[in-house]
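Customer escalation, tier 2.

The customer says the design service returned an amino acid string that "doesn't look like it belongs to this structure." They asked us to rerun it and document both sides in this ticket. The original structure tokens are below, unchanged.
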């Protein structure tokens, strides 16, 4: 019977997450819905939920492009040359206008890195896209996700397999086969138009044979996403047969899913007729072949080509950043006096904006002069002080979630990610704050935040101060169309925003001329990006460069005569170019095989440029983006600009079959309500009869619509007298969400306080009480942002308690006060239950703020604060409805001490005007360790705890490190209206946090000081 009892308790713990939720403070971040997919369109084979306004020609055109791209690509992919497979079902598409919309989808849950351009969900085959990108990139991303749809449809996993994957994380194929295969297939149809998306990374990897992925690295998923196509590219080139129309890369991808039970090594063996062997058995042939292929393709080109830190006939180069900083640098901007650079890089706690002095070129300094310097070592330094000044040392999520830095946090768009004000006192950049990117101004000396401006626009990038410092120009989207904008920052009390361009295309990377009359920027020209000039006083635009190539990252010389920029005109690789505006002459200065980005002229020159390019890192052995200087000598080539007109057509794949799709005007004029597309499921459904339980059964059941904004959930269990029924409906269509539900519980009261180790609390009355509770609940919450929310709730509830088999109200108090077998604690618990029995009509409100960030290094919270304040009011209504007022506060703070240690503090208070069934149980893994589990209880409680958590060097349990902690706990608890004194207890001690071998549960071994002895305790729990 004990085994059956434990089974039931574990069952209840799984089925009833809401049973004790009222007694436990609920923290957590918010999923803020800033918009909703309230529009619906049916194409031939796709159902599109979207939030685009099709009465706007630009948004209509974008929707049309998305549908045409997917419909055409679906035909192409389903053909015999690719997957040779037909997807019979219509594919649901969730198309968001911007990233904040996609992030708030319930499929995501509240946080999605901006580097995720789209995704496909396996279970219901839903595809999510966003309209944040240029048209070529949007098409490429959409085709990539469509390849995932084909993969999943061919594989066709059962619901059981999907659920097992969610639990274990295991897949039938490694991630590189899914992602690399989808990218490879998509690249055959819609290749990326820019080299800095995938291309340059393959050349970097190919420059060193030790970087090229081996079979062991692939199968153990130690290969970054940008390298995952390398196997397919290798097979396509080395083992295809064009005459027979056989593409080995395609065949490997397709057969990998059609023969899902066959190992990839065996598939390769058959595909290559044994030339690569079976790498699952012996990978030597495969490793040698793929290494040779990529080294032959790019190795000599990269290793023997020009280097940015060397010199040749065209330029003299050198590194201009601290040599010992082993992390990528991006988007350097020059200080007005020309002596410093500010750039984004990765420091200890993530992406940061730093500044440093530009090192001066050193010549030989005689020994006598070195001795005069006082510190001889300074004379040998080629990098000045060599110190990076971190201007953004604040830990997220305050004052921002993350900095907007292309390549680090976002896709590479174009332009610089920061701008230095002309007076040198401020730096402007964008950071994620609340809904989207906000403009931030900081003090260049201290990093103090001077101003944060949230914009009514989407995805703002590339700030650029005007020549007088009163305006900041930037690129941002409004209703899908990306243009150049400007915001007035000359008055801290004024927010004035102006649209500069109105091309409704994809304008990026604005930089204002030194005389303040013009803005150079990048805009789309067909599938390409080119230089454009906007004349501020006249409002007219002029295209500066033409052709089937891309330009990027323009900036001005101080005299306004020349624009320096990067272009992939030669060989599709970004290199250094200048444009003489007087003569309209283009000059190419570098031909680096790994390219460069973000060039900017040195102060007062047109022959010295600072830029970013991949370079060898002597400290780590890797290849990172570093900041270099080039003194220009002789151009590689030059030519006069010629207006060749706009680029037409899909130049990257002109032979593909394209059918013209036009939106159905009837659907647009008579839009359908977006269908719900409910899907229901359940589990653990069982019914039966036993001599012990009598009738028994259990089940859970749930339904959700396709957007996961509406959910019905029901749970049921019955074992003898133990019964539970819980139903709820939740609606999250809008920013204010709501939920209503009904439940009835009948169970031993201690089930709600069951502990894996100690089992039952040390409460005689509680352990012999059954609770019966019936309630109707209504709950709503309004999240102001991800970190702050307001909750309102109401509850009509009836509770009754059965003690020793009798209704608690029928028992005489004398039996507890006279009998010496009952303690004072027992008497108080009896009175509490007796006074709590009855009905309440509760109204409540709570404010929650949670800014805690987490880290694997600390096995949980790392830094931040959490606060929850809650009040409840139940008006007295006759004899049946009891009245009370209660309040509770729960606060936590975490302060990191380095990357693996922290101080954690916690305080909780609760009070009530009368017994209402809610109380706090102390002594246990969650509160007040080291005393008998559950031995202290009350409904007027104060509790505080402080911990120092740290790693214990050199300690492991079966290879998993052990963490230590020191702690001190204190509590005061009493029941209201009692004459008994409050129970007070203090504990302090130390402990170790580890993972229990084999079963994998987190555990703590704790020692507390009591009566001059150290007493051990054991808990299965993680740190709070």
């Amino acid at each position: 019977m004990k085994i059956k009892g434990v089974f039931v308790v574990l069952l209840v713990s799984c089925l009833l997450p809401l049973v004790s939720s009222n007694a436990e403070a609920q923290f957590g971040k918010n999923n803020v819905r800033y918009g909703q997919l309230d529009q619906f369109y049916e194409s031939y084979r796709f159902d599109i939920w979207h939030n685009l306004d099709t009465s706007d020609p630009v948004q209509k055109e974008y929707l049309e492009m998305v549908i045409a791209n997917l419909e055409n690509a679906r035909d192409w992919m389903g053909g015999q040359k690719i997957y040779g497979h037909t997807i019979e079902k219509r594919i649901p598409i969730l198309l968001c206008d911007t990233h904040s919309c996609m992030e708030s989808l319930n499929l995501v849950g509240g946080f999605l890195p901006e580097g995720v351009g789209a995704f496909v969900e396996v279970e219901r085959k839903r595809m999510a896209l966003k309209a944040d990108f240029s048209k070529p990139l949007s098409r490429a991303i959409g085709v990539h996700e469509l390849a995932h749809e084909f993969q999943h449809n061919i594989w066709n996993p059962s619901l059981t397999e999907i659920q097992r994957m969610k639990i274990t994380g295991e897949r039938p194929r490694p991630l590189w086969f899914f992602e690399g295969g989808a990218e490879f297939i998509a690249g055959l149809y819609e290749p990326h138009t820019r080299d800095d998306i995938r291309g340059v990374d393959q050349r970097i990897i190919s420059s060193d044979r030790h970087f090229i992925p081996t079979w062991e690295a692939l199968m153990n998923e130690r290969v970054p996403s940008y390298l995952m196509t390398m196997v397919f590219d290798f097979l396509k080139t080395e083992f295809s047969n064009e005459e027979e129309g056989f593409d080995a890369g395609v065949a490997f991808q397709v057969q990998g899913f059609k023969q899902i039970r066959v190992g990839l090594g065996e598939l390769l063996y058959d595909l290559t007729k044994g030339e690569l062997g079976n790498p699952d058995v012996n990978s030597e042939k495969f490793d040698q072949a793929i290494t040779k292929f990529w080294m032959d393709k790019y190795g000599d080109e990269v290793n023997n080509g020009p280097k940015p830190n060397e010199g040749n006939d065209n330029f003299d180069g050198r590194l201009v950043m601290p040599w010992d900083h082993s992390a990528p640098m991006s988007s350097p901007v020059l200080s007005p006096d020309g002596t410093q650079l500010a750039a984004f890089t990765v420091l200890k706690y993530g992406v940061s904006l730093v500044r440093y002095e530009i090192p001066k070129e050193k010549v030989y300094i005689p020994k006598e002069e070195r001795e005069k310097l006082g510190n001889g070592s300074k004379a040998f330094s080629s990098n000045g002080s060599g110190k990076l000044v971190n201007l953004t040392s604040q830990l997220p999520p305050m004052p921002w979630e993350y900095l907007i830095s292309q390549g680090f946090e976002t896709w590479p768009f174009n332009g610089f990610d920061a701008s230095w004000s002309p007076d040198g006192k401020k730096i402007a950049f964008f950071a994620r704050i609340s809904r989207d990117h906000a403009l931030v101004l900081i003090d260049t000396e201290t990093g103090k935040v001077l101003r944060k401006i949230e914009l009514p626009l989407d995805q703002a990038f590339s700030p650029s101060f005007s020549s007088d410092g009163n305006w900041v120009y930037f690129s941002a989207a409004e209703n899908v169309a990306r243009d150049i904008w400007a915001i007035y920052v000359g008055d801290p009390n004024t927010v004035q925003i102006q649209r500069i361009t109105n091309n409704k295309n994809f304008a990026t990377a604005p930089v204002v001329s030194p005389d303040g009359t013009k803005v150079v920027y990048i805009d789309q020209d067909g599938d390409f990006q080119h230089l454009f000039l906007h004349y501020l006083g006249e409002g007219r635009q002029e295209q500066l460069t033409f052709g089937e190539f891309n330009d990027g990252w323009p900036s001005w010389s101080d005299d306004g005569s020349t624009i320096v920029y990067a272009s992939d005109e030669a060989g599709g690789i970004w290199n250094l170019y200048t444009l003489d505006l007087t003569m309209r002459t283009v000059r190419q200065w570098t031909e680096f095989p790994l390219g460069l980005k973000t060039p900017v002229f040195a102060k007062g020159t047109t022959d010295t440029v600072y830029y970013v390019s991949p370079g060898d890192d002597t400290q780590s052995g890797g290849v990172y983006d570093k900041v270099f200087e080039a003194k220009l000598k002789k151009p590689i080539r030059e030519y006069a600009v010629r207006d060749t007109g706009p680029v037409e057509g899909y130049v990257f794949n002109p032979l593909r079959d394209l059918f013209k799709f036009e939106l159905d005007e009837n659907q647009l004029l008579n839009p359908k309500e977006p269908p719900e597309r409910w899907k229901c499921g359940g589990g653990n459904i069982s019914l039966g009869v036993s001599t012990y339980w009598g009738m028994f059964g259990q089940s859970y059941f749930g339904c959700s619509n396709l957007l996961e904004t509406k959910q019905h959930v029901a749970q049921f269990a019955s074992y003898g007298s133990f019964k539970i029924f819980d139903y709820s409906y939740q609606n999250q269509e809008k920013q204010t969400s709501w939920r209503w539900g009904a439940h009835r519980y009948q169970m031993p009261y201690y089930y709600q306080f069951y502990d894996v180790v100690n089992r039952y609390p040390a409460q005689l009355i509680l352990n012999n009480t059954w609770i019966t509770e019936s309630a109707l609940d209504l709950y709503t919450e309004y999240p102001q942002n991800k970190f702050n929310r307001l909750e309102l709730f109401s509850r009509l509830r009836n509770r009754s308690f059965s003690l020793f088999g009798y209704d608690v109200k029928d028992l005489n108090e004398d039996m507890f006060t006279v009998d010496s077998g009952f303690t004072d604690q027992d008497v108080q618990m009896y009175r509490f239950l007796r006074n709590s029995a009855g009905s309440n009509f509760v109204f409540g409100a709570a404010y929650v703020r949670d800014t805690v960030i987490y880290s694997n290094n600390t096995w949980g919270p790392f830094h931040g604060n959490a606060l929850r304040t809650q009040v409840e009011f139940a008006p007295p209504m006759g004899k049946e409805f009891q009245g009370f007022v209660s309040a509770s506060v729960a606060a936590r703070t975490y302060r990191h001490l380095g990357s693996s240690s922290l101080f954690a503090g916690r305080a909780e208070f609760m009070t009530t005007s009368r017994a209402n069934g809610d109380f706090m149980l102390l002594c246990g893994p969650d509160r007040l360790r080291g005393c008998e589990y559950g031995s202290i209880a009350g409904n007027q409680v104060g509790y505080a705890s402080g911990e120092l958590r740290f790693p214990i060097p050199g300690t492991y349990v079966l290879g998993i490190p052990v963490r230590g902690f020191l702690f001190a706990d204190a509590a005061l608890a009493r029941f209201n209206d009692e004459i008994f004194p409050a129970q007070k207890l203090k504990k302090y001690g130390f402990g170790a946090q580890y993972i229990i071998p084999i079963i994998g549960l987190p555990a703590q071994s704790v020692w507390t000081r009591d009566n001059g002895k150290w007493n051990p305790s054991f808990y299965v729990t993680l740190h709070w």
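Tier 2 assessment: The sequence is consistent with the input. The two ends are 34 Å apart (CA to CA). The first strand starts at residue 39 and ends at 42. Sent an explanation to the customer and offered a walkthrough call.
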